[in-house]
Design a protein that fits this description.
The longest helix has 23 residues. β3 and β4 form a beta hairpin. By secondary structure, this protein is of the alpha/beta class.
Length: 220
């Protein structure tokens, strides 16, 4: 896991955001191309796009637990490029090889939040050796922020509000709903956008090759 040294945050950037200020921000959802990978052709297209990237936004979803002591394995991995977000349902064992290859690719930055927890859980599903992972929450904390979740960081650095809608839905369902697909894609996209924003602000210790496309924030 990459670690970021302390960096002085620009004075005009807030260190935190209140619920009231968050509620005033415009809602944004990912409006680009989403591919819920289901066929060998889609898997190969996803692999080609992901492995051509310099920066990939990464997130996972897990079926929620509502009883004490209950837990579940991850159900979904979301990976965002400049061109699309790919959703990999982990009930499809054929996606494991592509995901393992992405996670192990040393030249591709995989940017997300709470990555250590995600990776630990994913290793209970399939084997991989991760390289070049960047936890955006660690970057935020090393820069003096007390809030490090995706939604708070999106509010502070991107000026947008990501709705929580489908967070506690059944991610183990064989067919994801339209709301689930949008929610999952938005989280991975936001992680990539945050990386680009952090990079532009000089919050990252080192800069990878320029990504193919700016990943501009789409309108809802």
């Amino acid at each position: 896991m990459n670690s970021a040294p302390p960096v002085e945050l620009q004075s005009e950037i807030a260190r935190s955001i209140s619920r009231e200020d968050m509620a005033k921000l415009p809602i944004r959802r990912y409006a680009g191309r989403v591919c819920a990978v289901a066929t060998p052709q889609e898997l190969e297209l996803a692999r080609a796009d992901l492995l051509s990237e310099a920066v990939v936004g990464l997130d996972t979803e897990t079926r929620p637990a509502f009883r004490k002591g209950e837990s579940h394995l991850p159900c979904l991995v979301q990976a965002a490029t400049a061109r699309a977000v790919y959703l990999f349902q982990l009930r499809r064992v054929e996606v494991f090889t592509v995901l393992a290859e992405l996670l192990a690719a040393p030249r591709i930055v995989k940017a997300g939040v709470s990555l250590a927890d995600d990776l630990r859980a994913l290793k209970r599903v399939f084997a991989f050796a991760e390289k070049n992972m960047l936890d955006l929450g660690d970057v935020a904390r090393s820069s003096g922020l007390g809030q490090s979740g995706v939604r708070n960081l999106a509010g502070i650095f991107l000026g947008l509000r990501i709705p929580k809608g489908a967070r506690t839905s059944n991610w183990a369902a064989p067919q994801l709903s339209a709301a689930q697909i949008t929610y999952a894609a938005t989280d991975a996209w936001a992680c990539r956008e945050l990386f680009l924003r952090f990079q532009s602000l000089g919050l990252l210790r080192s800069k990878p090759p320029a990504p193919a496309g700016s990943g501009a924030i789409p309108r809802a």
